[in-house]
Write a structure and sequence with these properties.
Layout: E1 14-19, E2 26-27, E3 33-34, E4 45-52, E5 64-67, E6 73-77, E7 80-86, E8 90-94
Antiparallel strand pairs: 1-4, 1-7, 2-3, 4-5, 5-8, 6-7
Length: about 110
């Protein structure tokens, strides 16, 4: 195979997401520092969509999505880690073009 660059195209209903933020320390709303090693209930994470398959209907590249990072497939491209999941594994979408939402904003 040559050294030419190949474009990654997601198939079917797959979505490629990169985690936003990190798994590091965070602060509670009261200002208490919570270390990364603290055991908490399962947490959903925010990520940014970098690629979508041709059967994805509700998200677009650039949207922020909420999902469960456990049991997702991880792939590394040029030193950056991405998660690959089905569209149905997404819990919520944060975008500027919503028609009906929760009334909450990021």
């Amino acid at each position: 195979m040559s050294d030419s660059k190949l474009e990654i195209q997601m198939l079917h209903d797959r979505v490629m997401v990169r985690l936003v933020g990190g798994d590091g320390e965070r602060r509670s709303s009261g200002g208490i520092l919570i270390p990364a090693t603290a055991q908490v209930a399962k947490r959903l994470c925010w990520g940014e969509v970098y690629g979508i398959g041709n059967h994805v209907r509700t998200v677009q590249v650039g949207d922020r999505v909420l999902f469960n990072p456990d049991d997702q497939f991880e792939v590394e491209v040029h030193g950056c880690a991405y998660l690959v999941m089905r569209e149905r594994d997404l819990q919520a979408v944060a975008s500027e073009r919503t028609e009906h939402g929760t009334g909450l904003y990021l």
